[in-house]
Each structure stands twice: as C-alpha cells, then as structure tokens.
Amino acid sequence: MIAGRSYRSRLLVGTGKYRDFAQTRDAIVASGAEIVTVAIRRTNIGQDANAPSLLDVLPPSEFTYLPNTAGCYSADEAIRTLRLARELLDGHRLVKLEVLGDSHTLFPNVRETVKAAEILVRDGFDVMVYTSDDPIAARELEAIGCVAIMPLASLIGSGMGILNPWNLRLIIGQAKVPVLVDAGVGTASDAAIAMELGCEGVLMNTAIAAARDPVRMARAMRLGVEAGREAWLAGRMPRKLYEASPSSPTAGLIG
Length: 255
Fold this sequence. Notes:
alpha/beta
C-alpha cells in the first residue's frame, strides 16, 4: 500500500539500460511489476515529440509511472525535474526522489535529499525517497511526510547485494510507512533476502537489464520477491548454535 493505493506486485522495476523499448516491455511484463520508474532526464515521455516515447510501449493505463530524479546532484535540480514530470504526466503525484552525492559512487546526498523532500511534500507530491541505510535519516524523511523509505542495499548498479542487513532491520522496525530496498540487488537471492528481512518491496533496474537474459532474470526476480515474502510471513525457524535437531522425532522409535 503506497500513498493510499494497493498493488499486487512487490517488485518495482526501472525502464533504463535495455537494448530497446521492445526488450524493456518484455522484461517488465515478465517481472509482473505494476510500478515502473522513469528517469525523466534520460527517457522520453513526451519531452521530444519527434522521438519514440516510453508511453507508447508502457502505457499509463497498464502501469503506474514513478518518475525519478536520476542524475540530479542538488535539491533544486531534483525539484525542477519532478515538477516537469508532473506537467508531462498530467498532474501525476507519485514520484521517486533521489539526490546523488557524487558521480563515482552515486551514494545519496542525504542533506540535499531532506531539503528536496520538505519542498516536494509541501508542494503536494507523494514522495518515495532513495536514501542511505541510516536509520536516523530514514526516520527524519518519514517525519517530513515521505510515503515510502527506500534505503540502498549497496551502491547503485553494483550488484553487491545487501551489505548491511542490520541497519535495514533497524529502519524496518521503526518505520510506519513501507520500506523498499533500492539499489545494489544483483540476483534473485538478493531480492529474496530483502523480503525475508521484512521489506515491503524491492526496486531494481540494472540487475535485470544487465543480465545475459533480461526477460528470464525478470521472471527470476519476481519469483525471488514472492518466495522471500512467503518466507517472511511463514516465520523462519530459530537459529541454533552447536545444537543439532533431527528432522524426524526420536520418541517411540521402533525396536
């Protein structure tokens, strides 16, 4: 449930880095995702009337668009970008805010992110926010009014998976809004682990688009997210150190 609307799929996917728009659609359909992110500064959704538009391939009647501020390095840049997105998408309110700290690591600039979030929330946007895995920053962004907190698992595009599950647990444990892992997922097991930690969902792009077979990887990610969620709801057995426990009961053995 995000900004008052429910979704069946807990996998959110990006639309960049694919070979072409046809592959983009095939992979996203295979993923089962309902929410797709769009880098407004890099993807045509009407800015160029003479170029192919993503809107034709992934119509808003089928998918919920999540305009993002990929490539923005200041609050001002991010705010301008999302106001443009709202204009292009006829008043669309749901957005993903990310303000980067440098072009080498793409690590979030939390100070600028907070500044942008304050203005965007006051401006009527429903802000899903990419941030570091800092529980204090996450709490502050939720207090501002962001509708979802999206801490990184590891650096954008790194495929390193979840490097600090303990901080993610802290963020999940305190949050009253959905927490979705964003950035760093490399394969389906990473997505499953995120869901087993209690995340409400996972957002990814490169892990699918850069796979040898993006469409097959999209299916794998869908299954990973579903399996992780089921495992979280089922409740795993407790871990036991140095104490074996046979699978079969030992009472009443024959003979």
